[in-house]
């Protein structure tokens, strides 16, 4: 490397012989890569917010389109999250906001596939907080999944039908 060369990976002999006119490059490269990391992180959060992500407590809810219960569950898991569940009224309200915005009811990460009438979360834990619509769950034609309606109420619903999928991250 000689004077005037473009800055590239520097070897020790280059530095020792003072042949390179870009000794500040390593520091500069580090600064640039830190800056691009921050820009990337900022863009990621911006994209989430533009997509209508809602944050409640430590959770971020992001909607992904309409899928069956099992496809939605797998999709969220692949994204490093889980199909969203309302664990309390605040989370239920936040999820209902997304439902309202999309005008599509959404699957919750709750089902009674294993034992009819016994609703559990994806990890098998029994459901504590519930917000059933009057007359639900009615297991009409064997409904084993649960959708959240825009009025914040729940209805048991066929798992194989497509509904809005909201992942919690
Ligand atoms: Ca059922
Ligand atoms: Ca029902």
TrEMBL record:
Which intervals hold domain C-type lectin? 61-168
> Which SUPFAM superfamilies does the entry mention?
C-type lectin-like
Keywords tagged on the record: Disulfide bond, Lectin, Membrane, Secreted, Signal, Transmembrane, Transmembrane helix
At the top level of its lineage, which domain of life is listed?
A: Eukaryota
Instruction: List membrane-spanning regions.
Output: 28-50
Fetch the Gene3D superfamilies from UniProt: Mannose-Binding Protein A, subunit A
What subcellular locations does the record give? Secreted
Under InterPro entries, the record lists:
C-type_lectin-like, C-type_lectin-like/link_sf, C-type_lectin_CS, CLec_Tetranectin-domain, CTDL_fold
Name under which the protein is recorded? C-type lectin domain-containing protein
């Amino acid at each position: 490397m000689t004077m005037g060369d473009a800055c590239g990976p520097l070897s020790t002999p280059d530095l020792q012989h003072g042949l390179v006119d870009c000794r500040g490059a390593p520091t500069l490269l580090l600064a640039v890569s830190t800056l691009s990391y921050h820009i990337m992180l900022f863009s990621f959060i911006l994209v989430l917010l533009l997509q209508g992500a809602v944050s409640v407590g430590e959770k971020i809810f992001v909607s992904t389109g309409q899928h069956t219960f099992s496809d939605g569950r797998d999709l969220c898991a692949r994204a490093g999250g889980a199909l969203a569940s309302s664990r309390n009224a605040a989370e239920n309200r936040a999820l209902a906001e997304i439902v309202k915005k999309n005008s599509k009811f959404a699957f919750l990460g709750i089902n009674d596939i294993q034992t009819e009438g016994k609703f559990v979360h994806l990890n098998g834990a029994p459901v504590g907080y519930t917000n059933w619509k009057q007359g639900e769950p009615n297991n009409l034609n064997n409904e084993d999944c649960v959708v959240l309606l825009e009025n914040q109420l729940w209805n048991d619903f066929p798992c194989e039908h497509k509904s809005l999928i909201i992942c919690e991250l």
